[in-house]
Specification:
With 491 residues, the chain is α/β, with parallel strands linked by helices. Helices cover 37% and strands 20% of the residues. The strands form five sheets. It has a seven-stranded mixed sheet, sandwiched between helices.
Length: 491
Amino acid sequence: MTAEARPGAPVPSTDPRTGTVRAHPAREAGPADVHRAVTAAHRTLDALADRPRRAALLHAAADLLDAARPEILAAADAETALGETRLTGELARTTHQLRTFAQTAADGGYLDVRIDPADPATGRPDLRRTKTPLGVAAVFAAGNFPLAFSVPGGDTASALAAGCPVVVKAHPGHPETGELCARLLRRAAESVGLPADVLTTVHGFAAGTHLVQHPLTAAVGFTGSLRGGRALHDLAAARPRPIPFHGELGSLNPVLVTERAAATRPEEIGTGLAASFTLGHGQYCTKPGLVLLPTGHPALEKAAVTAAAQVPAAPLLDPRIRDAYLTGAAHRTALPGVEVLLAPGPAPTPDAPLAVRPGILAVAAEDLHDELLEECFGPLTVLVRYHDDTDLHAALTRLPGTLTATLHHAPDEPPARTRPLLARLTPLAGRLVLNSWPTGVAVTPAMQHGGPYPAATTPTTSVGTTAVHRWLRPVTYQDTPPELLPAELRD
């Protein structure tokens, strides 16, 4: 039992605007509770083998979430302060994901079936390849997306589509929202003739550790901090039987602006940057946290500062995230050579005494500190001014793996100039963005939401239909009689 374990302790639902405790909608799970949740989920594996039925489950879940929209939005806003407009869009994305994965489950294309008939001339046997579910999926809900990356989110939807029952480690920032959504998903399962335990939830820091270590847990999906994710990743690898840990651990999402782009589009790039790094008050995993731009372009910097200064102060997701943002911003501001263009800090309002304002820092490329290469979660970005290509390439060499990398160039710049820059960014990121902004992720088959470590722990995606492959493993049947083959492998 870890020092943090408090089995049975109430889990508070906290108002991020004021810091007051609203309610205690759940209890922290101990080892016995986690064992019950995992074993209950494991018992549903055979039932989930019915692809049409699990497709029906995902459709039913989307319908129930849509029907409960007022209740869901009220709970989520009370726990995250994200606002009705943002949460309405997130709920729509969540139900779209569920319906998309329902279609994925129904059509079966994700099984990637391959059949090589026997060849008597060469003696090659009959070989038929498909994919099979790994088993119970442990899903760690994210703090910044209480719906789309949490209990009913993409990890859950893709795992269920693959035929894996799910145990969700609910996020402490929105326990009421998590429990409400879990009840709806369990009701959806029962409505299509599946056991409710295809989805179970547990709460508490220590519960996450026990969940990763449980012998029946077959794979993990995680979205959260680098420190927490790496600790769980190491636990998954240290098990007697290691399991896949698909972690998204944070991202710097660098932006590179060429000299020609800064000269021809300063206002557009500056205001676009401000809108992007303050979207959701800087709490998107794709927030551009570092911008490489040439020296001598005050118009671009002024446009960014002016636009960001007009963004209303707002609370962050919870008081702990607020404290981390203020501490991280203050530490970066105090580093030698760092210039404060827009000061981050507390900005209380009558309705939200815990509100904060965004910040913009600037530093010369030769003074780029290691601390500035780490994500600061919240509405803060760092401008890194480079003098020439030598400066620029030295900075690029130091950048960590990231979810996205963005290049802003001028339309008339020759490919001989932009192609090498894009080639330098490609090894860093899972998604390359040209002349737009990385915030916002489309749920499509072509989407890649993952990147080299530390952005992610595996070269997979947590968004889009190919996310289903994280929960499957290939199996080949050799010289197997037709009556013993899975249906998709029969002639």
